[in-house]
Amino acid sequence: MTGQVLAIDFGGTKVALAVADAGTAEARPHNTVRLDTRAAEGTAQVVARALAAARDLVADPVAVGVSTFGVVRDGAVRLAPNVPGWDGLRLPGLLAAAFGGVPLAVDNDVNAGAAAELRWGALRGVDTALYVNVGTGLAAALVAGGRVLPGANGAAGEIGYLRDAPGAAAFADGRAPLEEAVSGSALARRGSALLGRPVTAAELFALYPDPAVAALLDDALEVLARTVANLSVVLDPQRVILAGGLMGAAEHILPRISAALTRAVPFPPALAAARFVDDAPLLGALSAALDLAAA
User: Is-contact 252 224, C-beta < 8 A?
Assistant: First the structure.
């Protein structure tokens, strides 16, 4: 099919859009736009501004791929508290109406990131894999047969809800226990409390020589490494890929996980950083749009 495909990635802090020619074999969209999500202003303006930007990019796309934070289930987005009103938003229906019957695919952002790595990146040619995204939040994608496994409810890989201690809070309490211990937002919160001033997770890793900071980070990395090792025992992947904003500290993160895999997993998988860092969900949405166009 000739024409252009459109990709949209709805994120908690930004919306990214890209256009590519249908049939392209490379992860190189020729036009990309980014918008601030402006989460505090609610869902309607996010969707409206994204659709306006999409119309400016391409008038008549032949297919549209979309990624979003949260989980897409029964025509609505779930597990998405970052933008007021996004949880429960019937995003697929809104987009289908806006694009007037153009083939449309909507998936969550971590699954989309894994799909980009499968098509163009560090998972190309890999049959079974674990893709772990450690950024503002924490989630994973499970790959088998060279495809991302959605699970019965589209929520496979929502590892932020794992409990790592007896008596820990759980989903029923409105909590995401593992994400609250290990993610970038968790490290920033814990580090800010420790130091008595606001710090980001990246700033914490820069302060690693400080004994108190090192203890905090070592504790979080131990939990993360144990989690990845346990998941690898269950899935038996060929390869584990680490992605997300915290991979700016890959020199601290990868050795810890590698050691845990070697110690705990009967057949340790290969471990690597993802090829795509900032635009993985957008490229995964682009991949979905290209597949729709080809079909």
Answer: no
C-alpha 131, offset from chain centre: 9
For residue 227, give every residue at least 6 positions away whose Cβ sits within 8 Å of its Cβ, in sequence order, or none: 159, 162, 164, 178, 182
Residue pLDDT, tens place only, 184-208: 999 999 999 999 999 999 999 999 9
Q: Band of the pLDDT at 99, cuts 50, 70, 90?
A: very high
Pick from 131, 113, 94: nearest CA to 241: 131
Could you give the CA distance from residue 219 to residue 226 in angstroms, rounded to a whole number? 11
Phi, psi of 272 (to 5 degrees): -155, 160
Pairing of strands 4-10, 63-68: parallel
- Residue range 112-127, pLDDT digits in tens: 999 999 999 999 999 9
Cα angle for residues 122, 140, 277 (degrees, 5° grid): 45
Collapse the DSSP code of 178 into the 3-class scheme (helix H, G, I; strand E, B; otherwise coil) and give the result.
Answer: coil
